[in-house]
Amino acid sequence: MMLVKLGGSVITDKSRYRTFRPEAVHRLAKEMAGSGQRLLVVHGAGSYGHVIAKKYDLHMGRKRPGQEKGVAHVSWDVRELDTLVIEALVHEGLDAVSLVPGSCTMLSDGKLTSVDLDKFRRYYDMGVTPVTFGDVALDDRREFGICSGDQMMEALAREFRPERAIFVTDVDGVFSCDPHLDTECHLIDEIDQSTLSSLPRSERCDDVTGSIYAKIEYMLGIASFAKECLIINGNVPGRLAAALRGELPLCSRVRGGKV
Ligand code: IPE
Prior knowledge:
Helix content is 37%, strand content 21%. It is of the alpha/beta class. 3-methylbut-3-enyl trihydrogen diphosphate (IPE) binds next to helix 3, helix 4, strand 7 and helix 7.
């Protein structure tokens, strides 16, 4: 079984509020449907989530009156995005069903502490592809917070022990520095604990759920529940299909603990 996260930077235009990328999503859906693999799919929120979540500081939980507007707005927006993703998946031949974090998870101080995994298991066992996404969720200490797609990836990897966990992004993988600024920059094909300390700490981040460093930490954690964890470029046709066939496309990889 393969666990796939379609990152918000691939399925939306992150620079423009609520801008879906239908061609990219349909192509990726086709690559997944054509793989013949059993799948679990997570998707990010992109410009359907981060812009308003940041405006209302939803990732910090209850800080001031009026944040409920943000809770409602983001919840609505990410459901709209999810409907578009599900539509593409079903249209391309995957029997996909959405499981909504806002109603099947609980956070505690921003950490994901409970997920109704039994529902994922039941859909999976009946031959359906469960789909979930980054969402606003309840937090038992902060009232509410953001449950990211990466947190869902970790919870699902822990439960389902996938062969591969694949992060589909808009870059080829993790680079040693910013390739736009430095020509010496190279793709790091194998990531491990030491990668975190080797990267320059200069990256600016507009996301409420963190930067590439947070992503690497999730990947390291997830890899302990999988055979390996890959970060690939979903804007290049065929890379996801190759990763799902068990090949190693251009990517960064974390070798995992589980066979
Ligand atoms: C973010 O989820 C969720 C919200 C902001 C509501 P992710 O962190 O998984 O989304 P992307 O992939 O970065 O867009």
